């Protein structure tokens, strides 16, 4: 189950989400939708574990999870990469996910969301902030959506594995997440 609402960019606190939004706007370079050539694995490194890329299939009849970042897969408890949205199990239902993706594709602008979802590790609610942006392959036609999701109250999976291996030194906070250097 997930609870979320579309919010304004001003309601987002996550620097991870905000920096990706700035990067997307920079890639637009005056066009309404940036070309997907700007979104290479190298350019996405600051956000890579938090990135989800879906392809638009049959003008939005379906969407295909091209890649789901490790942080996202860790929180939801499975990797949806290389799976169709219509054939994937979501707590809110596949139709609800399809509707969210169609809405962003149709709007043609970044969609910011803030809410809570069930964390697979312990079946508890975890807060998230996200942005889903449209990208295209020339001509402004949206053929892909990229989402960056941040879970600000959770340590990153790398931090979790380090914490599992050894206790934090005294005086070091054991909660919170380390944010990589983000582009301005």
Oligomerization: single chain
What name does CATH use for the topology?
A: Beta-Lactamase
Q: Uncertain regions: pLDDT < 50 for 5+ in a row?
A: 160-180
What's the rounded overall pLDDT mean? 80
CATH class: Alpha Beta
Largest sheet: 7 strands, antiparallel
User: What class would the helix/strand composition place it in?
Assistant: alpha+beta
Strand content: 25-35%
Give, in spatial order, the strands making up the sheet with the most strands: 1-5-6-7-2-3-4
Share in helix: 10-25%
Shape: globular
Q: How many independent structural domains? A: 1
- Find the count of extended strands (DSSP E, 2+ residues): 7
**What is the architecture at the second tier of CATH?**
2-Layer Sandwich
Distance between the termini: 34 Å
Rg over C-alpha atoms, rounded to the nearest angstrom: 16 Å
How many helices? The count is 4
CATH superfamily: PAS domain
H and E order: EHEEHEHEEEH
Please describe what this structure looks like.
The protein is of the alpha+beta class. It has one domain: PAS domain (Beta-Lactamase), CATH 3.30.450. The protein is built from four helices and seven strands, in the order βαββαβαβββα. Strands 1-5-6-7-2-3-4 form a seven-stranded antiparallel β-sheet, with helices on both faces. The chain is globular and about 45 Å long. The N and C termini lie far apart (34 Å). 28% of the residues are buried.
């Amino acid at each position: 189950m997930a609870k979320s609402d579309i919010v304004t960019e001003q309601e987002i606190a996550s620097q991870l989400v905000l920096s990706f939004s700035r990067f997307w706007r920079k890639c637009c370079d005056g066009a309404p939708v940036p070309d997907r050539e700007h979104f290479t694995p190298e350019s996405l490194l600051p956000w890579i574990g938090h990135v989800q890329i879906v392809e638009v299939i049959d003008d939005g009849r379906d969407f295909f999870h091209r890649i789901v970042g490790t942080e996202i897969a860790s929180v939801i408890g499975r990797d949806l990469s290389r799976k169709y949205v219509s054939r994937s199990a979501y707590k809110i239902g596949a139709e609800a996910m399809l509707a969210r993706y169609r809405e962003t594709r149709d709007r043609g602008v970044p969609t910011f969301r803030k809410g809570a979802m069930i964390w697979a590790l312990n079946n508890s609610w975890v807060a998230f902030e996200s942005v889903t942006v449209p990208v295209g392959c020339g001509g402004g036609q949206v053929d892909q959506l990229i989402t960056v999701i941040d879970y600000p109250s959770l340590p990153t999976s790398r931090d979790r594995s380090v914490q599992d291996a050894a206790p934090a030194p005294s005086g070091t906070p054991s909660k919170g997440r380390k944010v990589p250097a983000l582009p301005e």
